[in-house]
Amino acid sequence: MKNCTGCKQEKELSEFNKNLSKESGKQEKCKVCMQLPKPPKTSHSYKDYIEKAGLADYKQKYLRIN
């Protein structure tokens, strides 16, 4: 089990991509979080960006976050 730095949930190691430069050998973010688009640098907050981009439903459906 490993904690995702994106969604802050504990997930199985199989839900993370490989990254051999890390101590665990896995990425810090899970596969689902890695697929989410990055917010523009001018965005004030990630939460605002998700709502404006219409990704709130996507995040709730796949990450089970309210």
Written description of the protein model:
It is a single chain. The chain is mainly alpha-helical and 66 residues long. It folds into 2 domains: 1-35, no CATH class; 37-66, no CATH class. It is 30% helix and 6% strand. It is built from 3 helices and 2 strands. The protein has helices at 31-35, 46-52, 56-63, and strands spanning 2-3, 10-11. Strands 1-2 form a two-stranded antiparallel ribbon. The longest helix is centred in the C-terminal third of the chain and has 8 residues, at 56-63. The protein is globular, with a radius of gyration of 13 Å. It starts with a strand and ends with a helix. 8% of the residues are buried.
Side-by-side strand order of the widest sheet: 1-2
Distance between the termini: 22 Å
Mass-distribution shape: globular
Please count the helical segments. Answer: 3
Total number of β-strand segments? 2
Overall number of structural domains? 2
Percentage of β-strand residues: 5-15%
Structural class: mainly alpha
Give the SSE order as H and E letters: EEHHH
**In terms of per-residue confidence, which ranges show pLDDT below 50 for 5 or more consecutive residues?**
none
Question: What is the percent of helical residues?
Answer: 25-40%
Gyration radius over CA? 13 Å
Largest β sheet strand count, sense and barrel closure: 2 strands, antiparallel
Please state the average pLDDT score.
80
